[in-house]
Design a protein that fits this description.
Layout: H1 10-24, H2 33-45, H3 52-60, E1 62-67, E2 74-76, H4 79-101, H5 120-125, H6 129-132, H7 145-157, H8 168-184, E3 192-194, E4 205-206, H9 207-230, H10 262-265
Parallel strand pairs: 1-2
Antiparallel strand pairs: 3-4
């Protein structure tokens, strides 16, 4: 009987945030965890399994070495920090993979995939008025927007692995699923009806956004199923051009092709 992965708790997510904050002191482009969460989901849906050595430098901007000492680029402070991050990543990845493999029929099922998200606008709206003033001129992301951007980051950076297959129906299925996720990369312009950070807080997320979010989660299920079904892309086999009749035979006999193996073609 298989053992379900141990879910990450708040302490674990705090540890991930601390590591990313530290990396950001060396490279301000290092993303927040929600972006990484979206990227992880996309990596699990990608037709080819990408190793950390391939995705880690692209996602976090790490250089040729994952840890210090390193003259240039982002790097983890030490091997212990790197191992801690990768250990937490592996646990969360196993948890997400198990959710995407579970035969769920509703997102209310406790086995279903629930991205680790933060309603930033809801959190700010719930702050005391004096503290809200600090965010007055900031462009706060909509609910699930950063997650969706992280997902599409992987799709765009490994576009060859996400190229549509020849089967038109499957290609259309992929396009439709990706469109649902792309919709979340846009702003939430609907009328806010609920606060996802604090049930008692001011509304910050619209009903339309929640519907789009649910559709995007089902799209991840579809993309994961398609990825497993298709498997890695296979390069087309190109048949070598046949030698001319008067060319040397490729077998190395020294004879012209027409006087050697070319005779077989005329049989």
């Amino acid at each position: 009987m298989s053992t379900l992965p141990e879910p990450l708790d708040h302490t674990d997510y705090d540890a991930l945030d601390e590591i990313l904050d530290d990396l950001r002191t060396r490279d301000e482009e290092v993303p927040q965890w929600e972006f990484c969460e979206g990227a992880m989901a996309a990596l699990l849906c990608t037709r080819r399994t990408l190793s950390p050595a391939e995705w880690l430098p692209v996602l976090l901007g790490t250089g040729s070495l994952p840890t210090a000492p390193q003259e240039e680029g982002t790097h983890f402070a030490n091997t212990a920090q790197y191992d801690r991050f990768m250990g937490l990543w592996a646990r969360r990845g196993a948890e997400v993979a198990a959710s995407l493999a579970a035969p769920v029929e509703t997102l209310e099922d406790e086995r279903s995939y629930h991205p680790e998200l933060m309603d930033v606008r809801g959190a700010v709206a719930a702050l005391p008025e004096a503290e809200r003033a600090d965010f007055k001129n900031q462009d706060l992301p909509a609910y699930a927007q950063v997650w969706a951007l992280g997902f599409m980051f992987v799709v765009e950076n490994w576009s060859d692995d996400w190229a549509p297959p020849r089967d038109k129906d499957t290609a259309a299925w992929i396009d439709e699923a990706l469109d649902r996720i792309v919709a979340l990369t846009e702003d939430d312009t609907g009328k806010p009806t609920v606060n996802m950070h604090d049930e008692e807080g001011p509304p910050s997320v619209s009903d339309e956004r929640l519907n789009d979010f649910g559709a995007a989660i089902w799209a991840v299920y579809d993309l994961c199923q398609i990825g497993r079904s298709l498997g890695p892309r296979v390069a087309p086999v190109r048949k070598a051009a046949a030698p001319g009749r008067n060319d040397p035979c490729p077998c190395g006999s020294g004879k012209k092709y027409k006087k050697c193996h070319g005779l077989e073609d005329n049989d």
